[in-house]
Amino acid sequence: MLKIKNLHANIDGKEILNGINLTVNAGEVHAIMGPNGSGKSTLASVIAGKEEFEVTEGEILMENESIIESSPEERAHKGIFLSFQYPVEIPGVSVTNFVKTAINESRKAQGLEEMGAKEMLKLLREKSELLGIDRKFLSRSLNEGFSGGEKKRNEIFQMAMLEPKLAILDETDSGLDIDALRVVANGVNTLRTKDNAVILITHYQRLLEYIVPDFVHVLHNGKIVKSGTKELALELEEKGYDWLKPESVV
Length: 250
Ligand code: ADP
Ligand code: MG
Ligand code: MG
Known about the structure:
37% helix, FeS-cluster_ATPase_SufC, Rossmann fold, ABC_transporter-like_ATP-bd, single chain, AAA+_ATPase, 9 helices, binds magnesium ion, alpha/beta, 28% strand, four-stranded antiparallel β-sheet, globular
């Protein structure tokens, strides 16, 4: 599904990604871990096509097509979803209306007609039931006074509605309480199929107790310094990251 080859990226002339190689197949969940500042969020942004980063070398293929020149919108239409790409608070716009707009914008860009009201309602019902999200939540104003868990519920709901092929979830280093953690884990596990894939960026080994990844990669100074299976996450929990610093790997 996604193939990243020797990816180098800069911001303000400073090299942040330093030769990333990563292949993600349909049906797989990849966890990306690594210390603060190692480039995890940058990698997510570069895959999603955020324009503040300059790709200086390498290639990103989505289903065998290069997306390196594609805009973030084009990448979204190819089925790449990045969490946290939306404004934090939009007072007056409900969770439902926001997601309807997102779906119809995406359809418009693909030359499709707007989704009919009936079909939309059916999809809303189906996905909210699947995720155990109640009606009241769907009519809440977007992110206004949302708890950590509710923000996550909204994000996971957007993901469920948009049905991306590749979801990239960047769980930043703070603010994931146990409720939020459960929402993310239940959402990912519920939405996981053999046809989609997830890149889960996390600082927390604990999240990986709920979402069992197929692969774990450790990023250091913009490079993947180690890849393994879920056992690697346990090893990191025990030993930390220092033993994997490039200079200490002989
Ligand atoms: P992580 O998500 O692993 O904590 P980031 O990708 O956020 O790491 O950051 C990697 C490095 O890139 C850090 O040194 C950070 O300071 C730098 N960086 C990230 N975003 C920017 C930016 N917008 N401007 C300048 N430097 C940045
Ligand atoms: Mg960080
Ligand atoms: Mg980050």
